[in-house]
Amino acid sequence: MLRKLMKHEFRATGRVMGPLFGLLLIAAIAARFSVGVLLESSARFLNLLGGLFTTAFVIAIVGVCVMSLVLMINRFRTNLLGDEGYIMFTLPASVHQQIWSKLIVSAVWFIATGLAVVAAGFILVAQQGFWLEIRRGFAEIFRHLTAYYAFNGTAFLFELLALIFVGCCVLCLEFYAAMAIGHSFANHKVLYSVLSFLGLQFVMQLLSGGILVGTNYDILVVALPSDGVLAMHSVMLTMIVSTAVFGAVYYVITTMLLKKRLNLE
Amino acid sequence: MQWQFSNDAPIYAQLIRGIQIRIVAGIFPTGERLPSVRDLAAEAGVNPNTMQRALSELEREGLLYSARTTGRYVTDDVKLVNSLKRRLAEGRIGAFLQDMRELGFESEELLDILRQELEKEE
Amino acid sequence: MAILECKDLSKRFGSVDALTDVSFAVEPGRIVGLLGPNGSGKTTLIKLVNGLLTPTSGQVLIDGEAPGKRSHSLVSYLPDRNCLPQWMTAGQLLDFYRDFYPDFREDAAREMLSRLEIPEKRRMKQLSKGTREKVQLILVMSRAARLYLLDEPIGGVDPATRDYILQTIIGNYNPEASVILSTHLIADVEKVLDDVLFIHQGHIMLRTSVDQIREEKGMSVDQLFREVFKC
Predict the structure, then answer these.
(1) Fold of the domain spanning C4-228
(2) Which residues between 84 and 103 in chain C have a beta carbon less than 8 angstroms from any beta carbon of chain A?
(3) What ipTM score was computed for the predicted complex, to two decimals?
(4) Domain span at residue A176?
């Protein structure tokens, strides 16, 4: 059932994200052309056009990022909490499956958006031998990191990616929880959703800050391995886990509300 | 023949009457198989359970009978059908006569006008 | 066993009682009319059975179980509004229903679509409101469900389509399955119903059969309804 929900969720979102990625690709190529040819030209008009293309490229990048976020919020709101919810919540699927399908698909689109933006950047600056340079550059950085700070650059990169991924999912869940709270009210659902989001955000900051401040620094020092490598990894892991814990709380809030207090108009 | 229903009598009773008329009129010929309950219900635009109830009632009267596997048939007892025809006719004539009396027709006068109207029809 | 059973079902919205102590059962093979004026609680009741609302107190049992994953696979539900995603075509909707409901009869749905001359490749937002309603009804009636819950199926359609819908309900009749339909257009559906539930201000006022009303009161359900709910 989860697989089917995801299939149709991809179908519903793909029809928006697909063309957006296409647009980004075109904008990147146009911008590349501008940088390489138009802006170099002596004709005023071509300069202007080149400027426009480059601006369009920047707008496209921002647009794709914003849209993937807006789409993620909007799918949850219209497909589950709007009229379409009448169909979705009467499917032989559990609330958990509904949320997981939305969550996974959103996370995939976040990653895809990240990759698309990186790819667009490459198109803009790619030259002969550029790839080689990039690889060499990264290898260099990793080598330095390993040499100076004695931690594994590759592992750090994976940890960073994992943190970004978990962060994306938790951001989704935070929006879901906020909307689930907001829509359990009889009126002013959108207003209450926004307030709930601000509230959740506030509580999360408070708790993270509280933990940081409240923790005895000595204990932290003792608890953390003195070895630099391990310390770095521990910090990363702690961040990933604590983010995931917030995500779990949001998940529980969302499912509880949708199960017990579902209140479609 | 269109199915029509009045508001004052149970639907199953009106269905019984409707099927009786169709048998007498030969729309459902004697000895022939009747359409299925679902088809009859769809044609009359009524609930299949109500149609089923009407058919069971007609079976009890002996006007219909069920063969175990092949379905439901109209009786081949022509005498029974004829007496039903007579009964239905009597009922309608009774109502007609009552209407005519209301209009002040005497028997002789009534026979005259009936004869004239029948001739006109021919 | 009853396909649907409501036990002392109540629903409050804030301080408003939408339903109060509603109890009834529906046996397999029955076509039941849920009749009441606007705002009497018909939609609330149907939404409770579908698990779109949670009861304040009391119980809803579908084939012995509370609303949930299993009940959703047994119930085919027509909401009181059009909920089909506007960007989808009828063809995509067929695909959607086939994926989620093993009892979906795709060929039956295709036949009804072509019978009502609804194009499969047109998006919902390009169709008229009436046509969208027909698509939704076709999807709902194309399932071989145990319980059909139809909320105002004939409210917004023209008389010819109304007849087609009622014909479909009759033609679809199955002794294992029950149909509950809510409406205030009683004269049109009366002949199709076995039983009627009169609902008024969240209370079940009357529960009887169509022919019993006609037999005992000498009037149609429509006439009785007008008398009971006279303003």
Answers:
(1) Rossmann fold (3.40.50)
(2) 84-85, 87, 92, 96, 99-101
(3) 0.90
(4) 149-265
